[in-house]
Amino acid sequence: MADTSTKSASFWAEHRLWIIIASILILLPPLSFLFQFTQDSNFCGSWCPRMFFSWRKGQAASDFFLGFARSYMGVTLVLGVLASTFFLGRYWCSHLCPVGGTMETGSRIVPKWLKINFSAIPAPPVRYGYFAVYMLAPAVGLGSLCCNYCNFATVPRMFGAAFFNGADFAYFLRTAGLINLGLIVVFGFLAKGGRAYCNFMCPIGAMDSLSNRLGLKFGRRMNVDQSKCNSCGACSRVCPTWAIEIKDKAAIDHYSCMPCRKCEKACAKGAIAYGKTQG
Amino acid sequence: MTPKNIIVFIAAAAVSLAAANTRFGDSAHAIGVIKANGGSARHASHLDAGKDAYTLIATATVIPPYRGDARITLEGEPKLDCKLYSSGPVLDLGIRRHPVFREDTLFDLQPKDRIAIWAVIKPPAIDPVCGMAVKDDFVSEQHGGKSYRFCSDDCLNNFRLNPDKYKNNAAQGKYTLAFTDTATGKRVLDIPVLLGGKEGAGDGGHQH
Fold this sequence. Notes:
- Chain A is mainly α.
- In chain A, 49% of the residues lie in helices and 6% in strands.
- Chain A has 14 helices and 4 strands.
- In chain A, the strands form 2 sheets. Chain A has a two-stranded antiparallel ribbon with strand order 1-4. Chain A has a two-stranded antiparallel ribbon with strand order 2-3.
- In chain A, a hairpin with a 3-residue loop joins strand 2 and strand 3 (250-252).
- The longest helix of chain A has 17 residues, at 72-88.
- In chain B, strands 2, 3, 5, 7, 8, 12 and 13 form a 7-stranded mixed sheet that branches.
- The termini of chain B are far apart.
- At the A-B interface, helix 7, helix 9 and helix 10 of A face helix 1, strand 4, strand 6 and strand 9 of B.
């Protein structure tokens, strides 16, 4: 039974779009505000959150750990994201990530008739199928998904290229850059809710969703008050990660849920709220 | 886990594995160190011959005690068109000092600096038989809707005798993205760039 006593819509629920836009403006080009503290201009380099935990076949342990030192801000970011998710839910993904945030914000200006609804595809098996290959393929020498298909490389460069930055523009001259752009467009901007990329093929999202599930009993999450739910399905329809299934009542899949709190706002009965899970 | 989920998992893994295995021959990433007495890249960068354009990202860390200005050139024959861009911030907020990139030169490199240079490389048109870079006085020949140019009648005749052998040949060779200290003229980083050929490429049995 969930404690849904936290009923007043919080700052995080009411101002999510503006928080996302602020994150995009602060983190991505042209400002790249935080990155410039470390002589970087985007997520590549000290801030890379994706490469350090990928072990390549034949890589010496010293080289592997050197990767942690090279991307020390990325390591800090990922550990912070996983720890905060464990206790508070996936606020990084829903509110702060400028990469997912760009895709979702972009999808808001795409007309409905152009949108693709991916919700028929169960997200967790796609995500963990992708993530298994992400981790295992380089370890056994069968290629890598790491840099060639990187959302954290592509989205900042879209902003950089828009400001005529030559290096960022060059990224889209390569086949991999164009494929990434295509993936961002199809699974981000054109996706209903704008989060199919996050839901399917973000390795940080995959780890984060595991932390979300593991910390379910210890932290705060989106909860359904079964006594109030009338199974209308309004929450399910607005969920950008198609994490809510209506069985007898609404049921949230905490492998896919991020506390965007759209469901909370959509529920006329006030049956969904963010708070500590009990039981 | 339902059977549907298991099938979706396997399908996603299979597609991901195919994607992981796909190598794009038009781009590469080199990681190296800049050293006063000659730095090196961790490995050579391999590019497939026959593409219209290539991008190479060269990232490097400056090893103490080197400091200075380094000019970057792409050396090798036939000459490739190469434009260089530094991956600096769009708006420099001046929060932290960093090397300035201007006229293909990194100015004010200091110990522990990390640089990222993007090279956009375009190969020249070549005589597909001998591999020479095309010049104005070369003779041209149409084949399969494409125009080919040859340095001599010998090359043209060889092409006519066996066009399938030569028609896909493109510029190839061993190149070096060289970082040279402007004050001493010493190399501070060499990044090998191997523009790989297809079978039958090269001199085509015809030496100059």
